[in-house]
Amino acid sequence: MALAILVPEDDGPAGKRWFRFDVGTSPFCRFAVGGPERRQLDGVSLLGQPVWTSPMLGPLPAHDMGRGRYGIDESVFQGEAEFVQMMSYRTAQREGPAVSAIVRSRSPLPAMPPAPALFARAASVSRPERAQPVANALGLLDILGALAPMVGQLLGGLRGGGTPAPGPAPAPGGADLLQRLADPATIKLLTDLIAQVSHAPAPAPPPGLSSTKSVRYSEAQIAPALLAALPALMPLLQQVLSPQTIQTLVDAPNRAAQTVINGVTDVMKLGIQNNQAEMDHLKDLNPGVDDPAFDRLMEGLGLGPAAQRNGRDWLRTTRVRLAFDGLRSVSAGGANRVVFASDRAIVLPMRVELPELASGGAPRLGEASLSLEVKDPVSLAVVRRARARVDDIVASGAAGSITLPLDQVAQLGAGRDWLLSVTLTWRGPKKMQGRRLGVVMTQLIHLAGGYVFDALHEEGPAIDLADPDQHRPFWHKVWAGRFAEEARRFEAEVDYHYGWDAGARDVVREESSIQTRPADGSVAGMQARVKSGLVLSPDALAAVAATLDPDSAPLDPGVRAALNDPLLAERLGLGARAMLKLRGRQDEAFALWAYPAVRRAKLALLKPRTVLETGNITEFAPHQVPFAVPTAINLVGTRAR
C-alpha cells in the first residue's frame, strides 16, 4: 500500500535533524527541504521551492516493514528552509508515488518519552476534506488560551519538594511550557484535532451497551494535527496518562486521538494544593474556583457541575501522583499494547507517590477511594463503572486495587480497545468545606478473546477479481446513466475507498454521491464528481482466500473476534482518486464499475499463553490464518445502446 508518513524526532546524534518515517510497502523514498512556499498538485500540498533534495534511498530492507529513521544535516536548514517532505515510490523510477504531509523540523523538546515510531496508517491516494470546527472545540480553544499561564505555573512554580513522581520525566519549567502551550499555532492544532475527531465515526457498541452511529476514523485528517500538537501537550498528558498509553500515542497517534482529548480534559480539572498558602495563591490564578463564566466553559467540556453530580465532585492536585502497579505490555500489531483477557475479571493494583511536607513527613489521604471508568476510546462515553474503598494512605507505595468483575468484562466484547480511567480521591482539608481532592491516571488497553491481531503479510502477485460472476460481491456499480444531447461528454473526478466492518457477514455497497454541472466553455460537456465505496467483511475476504489458497478454512469465532481490532481496519483501508473521461452518443447508456485487485496473505494472530491473576496477558503464541488483502481499486466503464 502506498504510504508516506513523516514525523520529526527530538532524539538523535548531534549535527543532524532526525525524522521517523513509514512508507508502507513502497521500498524507495527521498526527502526534500524547503521554505514556507507551497504549491498544489491534484489537491496535494507540495513544497514550493525545495532548496535540497536527498538521493533516492532504497530498496529498504523488508524486515523493517517500511519504517525507519533519517537524519538531515543541520547545514541544510538555513533561513526559512525549515520544512521537510518525503516522497515514497514503488520503484526506483518513481512509479507509484505517495507524498507525506509537510512537517516543520524542530529542536529537541524536554519530557518526550522514548519512541520507536510516530506512524499513522492513511489512505493510499485520497485526501479527505477538512471538517469544520464544532462548539466544544471552540470552548477548549478558549480554555487553553486562558489557562496556559496558570498551567505553566502549576507545573513549574508550584511543584514543591519531595520524591520525584513515577513514570515519565517531569514536565519542564513553567516559562518553557507556557511558551509552547500558549502558542496560537498549538492551540489551533488541538482545536482542529477536536473538530476532526468530533466528526470521526464511532465503532459499533458491544452487546448490552448503548448504541452510537457507526462510522470510520478519517486518519488522514486526524494524524497531522495530533502529531503537531503532541510535543507541546506531552508534559501535561504525562500527568494523567500512563507511560504505556503515552507510548501508544507515539506509536499510533491516529488511533489515540480521543485519548489525547480525554487527557486534556483530565488535566483541566485544576487542583488545589494541600496547604492554605498555596490554595490562596491558586485561587488568584484559577478563575474556575468561583468564576461562573469559566464554569460555563468547563460545562461545555463535560467538566462542570453536571459532571460533578455524576460522581466527579473533586479537584485534581498536581502534588500527588497516581500510577498503575505492575502493568505489563506486549508487542502486538507492530506496537506495545497493554492487553487483558476478556474471560477474566480485570484487577488494577494502584500505587501513589506523596509529596514531602515542610515538617518532613507526608500528607495523610483520609477517606480514600478508587473509582474506575471504562470509556469508549472514540466517543469517550463511559460504559462501565466500579468503585472501591481503600485504607487511609499515609506513605508512598501501594494504594489498593480496583476490580471490574468478570460479568462486566464479558459484556465489553473481545477484540476492542478501551480506556480505563482510575481516580483516587480523598477528603480535602476543612477549609475546603467537604470538597474532595483527587488524581487520575488513564490506560488504553486491548481486550483479547481467543486471538489478538498482530500483522497481515501479503504474498504473491496482485490478482484482479475481474470475473463479475465469480466475484460478484466485490463488483460495485458506482454510477449509471445515459448520455444526452446536452451531456455527451463527462469529465469525472472519482473518489472510491474500501472500508472494513468486522461484524458484517457480507460486503456493503455505499450509496454513491454524484454531483454534475455543465463544463465552462464547453458544448455538451459536463463535469462530475463521484464519491462512493465498499465496506468489506471477514466472510467476503475469507471466500476470496479460499479461491486462492487450498489451506484456507472458515473463520472460527476466536478469529472473528480478533478481526474487530482497529489496527486491522487501518491495515485494510484503501482509497483512490481518478480522473475519467466518458464520451458517448445521445441516449446511449453508460455505467462505471469498481472492483479490487487482491493478494494472498497470512493473517498473523497471537494466542494468549500467559495470563496474570489480574487478567493482564504477558505472553502469546503465534498463529496464522490464510486471508486476502485488497491492494488496488480498478475502475471500468461500459456503455450500450
Structure description:
This protein starts with a strand and ends with a strand. Strands 11, 13, 14, 16, 17, 19, 20, 21, 22, 28 and 29 form an eleven-stranded mixed sheet that branches. It is globular, with a radius of gyration of 27 Å. A hairpin with a 6-residue loop joins strand 1 and strand 2. It is 22% helix and 37% strand. Helix 1 (135-156) packs across helix 3 (184-198).
Sum up the structure in keywords.
22% helix; alpha+beta; 37% strand; 11-stranded mixed sheet; 641 residues; 5-stranded antiparallel sheet; single chain
Work out the helix count: 13
The major beta sheet can be summarized as: 11 strands, mixed
Q: Helical proportion?
A: 10-25%
What would the principal axes of the Cα set say about the shape? Answer: globular
Write the SSE topology:
Blueprint: E1 2-9, E2 16-24, E3 28-34, E4 38-41, E5 44-47, E6 50-53, E7 67-73, E8 83-89, E9 98-99, E10 103-104, H1 135-156, H2 174-181, H3 184-198, H4 219-237, H5 243-251, H6 257-267, H7 276-285, H8 292-300, H9 305-312, E11 314-316, E12 321-324, E13 330-332, E14 335-341, E15 346-353, E16 369-375, E17 382-389, E18 397-404, H10 406-412, E19 416-427, E20 436-448, E21 452-464, E22 476-482, E23 489-500, E24 508-509, E25 513-518, E26 525-536, H11 538-548, H12 557-562, H13 566-572, E27 574-583, E28 589-611, E29 616-640
Helix pairs in contact: 1-2, 1-3, 1-8, 3-4, 4-6
Quick structural summary:
The chain is of the alpha+beta class and 641 residues long. It is built from 13 helices and 29 strands. α1 packs antiparallel against α2, α1 crosses α8 and α4 packs parallel to α6.
